[in-house]
Amino acid sequence: MAISLNISLHTPMYFFLANLALLDIVCTSTVLPKLLEGLVGKGSHISYKGCMTQLFFLTWFLGAELLLLTAMAYDRYVAICRPLHYSMLMSWPVCVLLAGSVWLISAVSTSVHTGLMAQLNFCGPNQIRHFLCEIPSLLLLSCSPTTLNNIMIVIADVYFGVVNFLLTMISYSFIIASILRIRSAEGKRRAFSTCSAHLVVVTLYYSTVIYTYVQPGSGSSLENGKLVALLYTAVSPTLNPLIYSLRNKDVKVALR
């Protein structure tokens, strides 16, 4: 709301930040209502359709956030390393194309994963040892072969996790190198302040998501991953607006 109502924040950086805020809202809305329902004692059951629905939207939003963080890193790279070409390289058509690609690519990916999951047979007690319907926890319940599912998970891990993480790190390597070439200490501080908040968010989000999905079929990783899942489904979305607002003078002015 602050970004949309304040004309001074109508820039590519805050356009992507508004998309991040939207992703955080829908991600927490996918998981936390059912979790809270279980915590207040109204039952910890979820229907098969409800589980598949939660799986679809959770996977969609998690993948979209990874892609969005990469787009935001590219935006900061252009702003700091190629400032004279910023208005051309980050024009509004380019920003809309990047944001649209983020949502569309992740939607295609989650459609594939959910479709493959829907073809599996589930037998036995069907008790999920988790507080949400997630691919690693559901694969452990299947009595059908899950080879294709695991292959697609590895492909998604490589693209969403490894490739996007490397692209983000490459962007920041150029950013850091550019900042170090600035002679004045004040100039370095101002340049780094524009990307430090994003770097904190990237570190927190990637470390938790990669930990969960790097071993999709491992029971031990599932047990250890419950707290980690809470971090990226609840804690991280809560911290994101605080990190960006408390460390950003423009946002604080807009909020006032």
UniProtKB/TrEMBL annotation:
Topological relation to the membrane, as annotated: Multi-pass membrane protein
Entries under InterPro entries matching the protein? GPCR_Rhodpsn, GPCR_Rhodpsn_7TM, Olfact_rcpt, Olfactory_GPCR
Question: Transmembrane segments in this chain: where?
Answer: 12-32, 52-74, 86-108, 158-180, 192-214, 226-246
Gene Ontology cellular component annotations, sorted alphabetically:
plasma membrane
A single Gene Ontology MF term assigned here is: G protein-coupled receptor activity
* Keyword annotations of the record: Cell membrane, G-protein coupled receptor, Membrane, Olfaction, Receptor, Sensory transduction, Transducer, Transmembrane, Transmembrane helix
SUPFAM superfamilies assigned: Family A G protein-coupled receptor-like (SSF81321)
Domain spans labelled G-protein coupled receptors family 1 profile: 1-244
Source organism's superkingdom?
A: Eukaryota
Write out the function statement from the record.
Answer: Possible taste receptor.
The family classification in the record reads: Belongs to the G-protein coupled receptor 1 family.
PANTHER family associated with the record: OLFACTORY RECEPTOR
Identify this protein by name.
Olfactory receptor
Native species of this protein? Neotoma lepida
